[in-house]
Amino acid sequence: MRTRRRVHRPETPVDTQAVRARLLRRREELQSRASSASADLRHESDPLSADFAEQVTQRESDEVLGAITESAREELRQIQAALRRLEAGTYGICIVCGEPIEAGRLAAVPYADCCRACADGQRGGPRRAG
């Protein structure tokens, strides 16, 4: 039998329009960054330079651009989830314990899906990045 956790509403109301606008702006920035980094990646079919030092530089550049692209994609997934929580009316509520997420945390990380205690693993759940 599954137990339902109690969902608490934040004490201070969230300005959903401002949060949505901020998330959408950030989504645009990340989409642009990911597109730019992907375009700059050397494709497998592109030949490497004949110069060994240049090959090292090219490969390092590809690794950095790949990491930037993956980081942007992960943040985009988190932003999409936050937008869904806004629509569902659960934005600002910890998905682990059901308590309100601290206003300062949401101001710093608007797509945060759990409170600081749950993110740090202090409530018995796994440590979470978001």
From TrEMBL:
Residues 89-120 form the Zinc finger DksA/TraR C4-type domain. Residues 21-86 form the DnaK suppressor protein-like N-terminal domain. The keyword ATP-binding does not apply. It holds the Pfam family DksA-like_N. GO terms for molecular function: zinc ion binding. Keywords: Metal-binding, Zinc, Zinc-finger. This is DnaK suppressor protein. It comes from mine drainage metagenome.
